[in-house]
Amino acid sequence: MIVSDLFILIGFSVGALVIAAILGMFIYLITFDRKQKMHSILRNYPLLGRMRYFLEKIGPEMRQYWFNSDTEGRPFSRADYEHIVRSSKYKRDVVGFGSRRDFEKEGYYVRNDMFPKLTEELKVDKETMALTNRYLLIKDPLFTQRVEKLEEDVSSAHLLHDDDAVVIGPDLAHPFVLKGLIGMSAMSYGSLGKHAIIALSKGLEIAKGTWMNTGEGGLSPYHLESNVDIIMQIGPGLFGVRDPKGEMDWGELKRKSEIPQVKAFEIKLGQGAKVRGGHIDAEKVNPEIAEIRKVPPYQSIDSPNRFHQFHDVPSMCDFIEKIRETTGKPVGIKIVIGGNSSVQELAKYMSETGKGPDFITVDGGEGGTGASYQELADSVGLPVKSSLLILAATLKKYGVRDRVKIIASGKLFSPDRIAIALAMGADLVQIARGFMISVGCIQTLKCHSNECPVGVATTDPQLQKALVIEEKKHRAANYVITLRKALFRISAAAGLDSPVHFSPKNVMYKDDKGIAYSLESIIHEVEKQIDGEEAEKYPALVKRARMGTPGPFY
């Protein structure tokens, strides 16, 4: 037999085996699907049903890349996602041709000044520099991989001037001084893998003047891989500072407070995407995470809906006082606001007693999470803009606004959103998912499954290999530096020499009919609503105030 005939025979045999295998598989599937009882469509139409489930499975990816427009996707549109990636990878945030915003829809706008500030008039720290790596895009062909060049980049860190530094707990033994208005919101080790935590820790240190929040999962060794400032969050489960019985271990809290990087503590009462305690699936709870959190390994963790150590505002403030006395460092609370009266009792108590938190983190319902329930993520808790207006107005009404700093979080990933939040009353802003995207997140929406394909929201050692710390740390740094630079740029357009001076007069709201309202007028309406609910709750107090008699909140 000649060689060519042999190859023909082998090819025919292989082809026949492949066809037979495919036919055998189809016959097996048809037989199996017609007998199974779970899926109705497979019993009647096995092959079409299988195709249906396949298309359903790849639907999110098809919509993300093919069918959704650049501004349609959720939680982040393609335009939003690409903006973050450009900032973190290329240290560029310019666009061409024009805005893709729908200007017919209602929304907030920064009020520009006829005579904006010149660059040299901006009150910025001109001394502090940041050394990062960024990519230069050389070519971006259609069918082959883009050609990029990695280069070192030295630029201003775009920090606040010393005179404008934000100080939390100025009268404490260890006040928290910040020269950057933007930090990393709460993301626990366990929700994120160690590669992501280390990359973020090192990147934020490179950027300088910022901080990272540990999330309620406790302080891990990976948060301490750099010298970045840390806000340690304590949730209802007391992870990281609990004893074997699940009670507060005050000795452990004291030891954590003596770590130089730990600058403040945050008591988590609620989170925008889950107005309840945190959740982490069992497969993520490896022995290391269990040790950090002081819980059994490979068991799902659900922290309680609230702290059992306190049950009302006075007992909560006593708990805050004890943490502050133990640590000597600022103590704040993280809350979700549900209505106009949500923080009245707290503000009133602060005014009457002098007690209370050093800062309040207000998280909007549009915020993200590693794992939650649909009904909580969609419908419980107000968005961050509404929440900020209520919180700032209530604290001001009771005369305690200057005592407490407000940190806003909830999809505030761009400089215009940050500027508007500052004008609404925020002193500082925290970002979570923006930083996740900066280190590689591609929005597969699998954070709860431990199957994150890019190694960000997973503790799987194999999957984490995708995230190269030494490369991604620079992207995290570039993202926050670019945001700070843009925030000064938008401040200049508003006629301000620093973003710390944003106020309600710098923002307008346009409705869907084209009519513009000042933010000041909107705040006035919020104050009237608060007055109305106050009159129902504290009638004698409000009556005295309206008669001109000084009350505890004037």
From TrEMBL:
Residues 155-496 form the Glutamate synthase domain. Keywords: Membrane, Transmembrane, Transmembrane helix. Pfam families: Glu_synthase. It comes from the Bacteria. The chain crosses the membrane at residues 6-30. Belongs to the glutamate synthase family. This is FMN-binding glutamate synthase family protein. The lineage of its organism: Bacteria, Bacillati, Bacillota, Bacilli, Bacillales.
